[in-house]
Backbone:
């Protein structure tokens, strides 16, 4: 039986953020602290002060307060203490890696089991009235060529990724399975409401530089590839917009369902042109790049299913329901590039 009762959210109560030391989580926590909220931040080992000091430093200069708790995605009950008294849980913690040795152990298990463990904690915590899940556009599509099979040629929140496998893009599979698990669990109770954010590929300046993040790796890759690049399609969004979308999803009473949070339907060349002088599309035809793919760190499957296609995500729901006014692509990339330069990361 569907829930009909409107859940009241205490906007002054603490909120919990899982995966606090992550790229998206850092900016989210920064924005929450600036609003004067108390943040219960979870990390696998908060006793390692050097890994969390930058979050404490941000709290010290903000109106809000931060408290640190241990939280392990694979350990049942490990989020219970952190959730006590919280009105909102932001579940951002999930592994993000495009290449792994063991898809089940490195991606699927922590993503799906971690979501189950966090939402089980929500079920046991009466103060929790809303859960905001960080999913991904990867839970909507696998390869750019999938758009050929979508009605009207537009990806909307109604579409699910149906083609990722453990061998073909296990990361999108992990995001799809984790989000589906969340919706099943949300539908089995009436204590809290689930709202989902589906970002594109997240770029922009973090609260600090995260050297191991895929986003930083991609920015460095653009700078290292020179001026001639393949025009692989990309859905790009600013990390600051992703943080704001999470907060709106938490506190706007009417917010519901999934939200494509993608600022731009773009490609690698257009992105590079914001930070690489004279960046242009590589003259190599697709068939030649396909042939050379294994020699330049790509798979032929990736080249055949991505190159020559376009992104087409509809972000109108995030704009209209969450009030997101997306950062310009050039500002996103230039601000990120400047942060990398300032921190001598490039």
Residues:
């Amino acid at each position: 039986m569907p829930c009909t009762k409107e859940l009241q959210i205490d906007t002054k109560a603490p909120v919990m953020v899982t995966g606090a030391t992550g790229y998206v989580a850092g900016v989210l926590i920064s924005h929450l602290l600036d609003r004067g909220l108390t943040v219960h931040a979870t990390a696998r080992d908060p006793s390692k002060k050097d890994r969390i000091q930058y979050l404490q430093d941000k709290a010290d200069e903000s109106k809000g307060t931060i408290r640190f708790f241990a939280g392990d995605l694979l350990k049942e009950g490990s989020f219970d203490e952190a959730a006590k008294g919280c009105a909102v849980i932001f579940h951002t913690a999930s592994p993000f890696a495009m290449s792994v040795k063991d898809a089940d152990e490195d991606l699927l298990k922590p993503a799906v089991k971690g979501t189950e463990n966090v939402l089980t904690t929500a079920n046991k915590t009466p103060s929790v009235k809303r859960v905001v899940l960080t999913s991904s556009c990867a839970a909507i599509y696998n390869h750019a060529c999938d758009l050929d099979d979508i009605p009207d040629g537009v990806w909307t929140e109604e579409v699910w990724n149906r083609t990722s496998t453990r061998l073909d893009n296990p990361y999108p599979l992990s995001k799809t399975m984790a989000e589906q698990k969340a919706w099943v669990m949300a539908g089995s109770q009436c204590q809290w409401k689930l709202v989902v954010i589906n970002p594109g590929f997240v770029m922009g300046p973090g609260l600090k530089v995260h050297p191991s993040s895929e986003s930083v790796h991609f920015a460095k890759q653009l700078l290292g590839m020179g001026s001639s690049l393949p025009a692989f399609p990309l859905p790009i969004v600013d990390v600051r917009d992703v943080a704001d979308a999470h907060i709106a999803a938490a506190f706007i009473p009417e917010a519901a369902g999934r939200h494509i949070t993608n600022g731009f339907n773009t490609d690698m060349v257009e992105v590079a042109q914001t930070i690489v002088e004279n960046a242009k599309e590589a003259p190599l035809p697709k068939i030649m790049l396909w042939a050379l793919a294994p020699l330049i760190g790509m798979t032929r499957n990736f080249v055949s299913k991505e190159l020559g296609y376009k992104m087409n995500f509809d972000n109108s729901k995030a704009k209209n329901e969450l009030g997101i006014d997306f950062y310009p692509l050039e500002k996103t990339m230039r601000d990120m590039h400047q942060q990398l330069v300032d921190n001598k990361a490039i």
The mean pLDDT is 93. The first helix runs from residue 23 to 34.
